[in-house]
Amino acid sequence: MSNTANLDWGNIGFSYSKTNANYVSFWKDGAWDEGKLVKENTLTISMSSTAIHYGQQCFEGLKAYRRKNGTIGLFRADQNAKRMQESCRRLLMPEVPVEKFIEAVKLAVKANEEFVPPYGSGATLYIRPFVIGVGDNISVRPAPEYIFCIFVTPVGPYYKGGMSMIKLVVSEYDRAAPYGTGAVKVGGNYAASFLPHELAAQEGYTDCVYLDPKTHTKIEEVGAANFFGITKDNVFVTPMSPSVLPSITKNSLLYISEKVFGMQVEERDVYINNLEEFAEAGACGTAAVISPIGSLTNGKKKFIFNSETEVGPVTKTLYDHLIGIQCGEVEAPEGWIIEFE
Ligand code: PLP
Ligand code: COI
């Protein structure tokens, strides 16, 4: 418990800091090796790796939380493991078994225990597992070898100000094609989002909203998070689309809204020209947690949710419950938390 003395947990923001150790496992000739912790945060790979040239790579994002009782908790890590398998299948990369993924995450977190921010600080330990195609290659084909890595880094809120209202604009660009890779967590989707995000930021917006790539009439994603809205008659609504990343946070909110708060929930089309149906809206994801949306601008039209500056009551209730589960203040549904010392 020494390396963290200089970290100001309340003000660390969403940025990378090097920690004690990282996890690395190699795949060759049809099998993953045992995997091990390494001190360095660099990789030496062939210049001709498919990850570099053809975007053959995928990643995950999850968090470790310091809980009220002092233990460390992982939130629905099995869901991240399964989603990474989907991403690997889509890019013809070898899948990491769920057990191996979870054990590797635990190993990486335990080796960096002093970087798990204190309970109540608002900060968490962000965990970034990834798989990359490596080895000598020039053809447009899957790599001969792969690396599965995990690094961790303490983070604060993804959007400045945490639970403060975000200001969004509809992007004219798409992040994913109709039958492309939008539903998996692969780097190319994110590279495609840099320019739209930058244009939105230059105009003073927090982030941008992507519409469905086929008709540009329905909401798909909010930057690197899913969208949800609370209708005026208290229904939790979130877009259903084959090019949206199936968010684990979104799925958890669907469950909490329905099972804990008895709300009606709907996964369906959300038309950009019908935002009047919503009293509140938010972006949800591991990094974004729940970021309440104050306004959404589409061309010359600006739509305001709640009062634009005040977090809506349903959004606040869902946020408190989700954080409560993650930090051990509220009972979690069966199997949602992996807890260790
Ligand atoms: N959508 C995109 C494009 C994302 O990058 C993320 C982040 O992982 C999410 C949604 C939210 O997913 P999750 O709640 O599983 O973190
Ligand atoms: C996450 O929420 O884990 C993400 O991956 C979003 C972003 C930091 C890429």
Characterise this structure:
This protein is α+β, with helices and mostly antiparallel strands. It folds into two domains: 147 residues, D-amino Acid Aminotransferase, Chain A, domain 1, CATH 3.30.470.10; 162 residues, D-amino Acid Aminotransferase, Chain A, domain 2. The chain contains six helices and 18 strands. The strands form two sheets. Strands 1, 2, 3, 4, 5, 6, 7, 8 and 18 form a nine-stranded antiparallel β-sheet that branches. The protein has a six-stranded mixed β-barrel with strand order 9-10-11-12-15-16. Pyridoxal-5'-phosphate binds next to strand 12 and helix 5.
Order of helices and strands: EEEHEEEHHEEEHEEEEHEEEEHE
Give the rounded overall mean pLDDT. 96
Question: Could you tell me how far the N terminus lies from the C terminus, measured between alpha carbons in angstroms?
Answer: 14 Å
Proper CATH architecture of the largest domain? Alpha-Beta Barrel
The hetero compounds bound to this protein are:
pyridoxal-5'-phosphate, 2-OXO-4-methylpentanoic acid
Count of helical stretches: 6
Identify the overall geometry.
Answer: globular
Structural class: alpha+beta
CATH hierarchy, class of the largest domain: Alpha Beta
The poorly predicted ranges are none
Could you say what the CATH topology of the largest domain is called?
D-amino Acid Aminotransferase, Chain A, domain 2
Number of domains: 2
Major sheet size, sense and barrel closure: 9 strands, antiparallel
What does the radius of gyration come to? 20 Å
- Strand percentage lies at 25-35%
Find the count of extended strands (DSSP E, 2+ residues).
Answer: 18
CATH superfamily of the largest domain: D-amino Acid Aminotransferase, subunit A, domain 2
Helix content: 10-25%
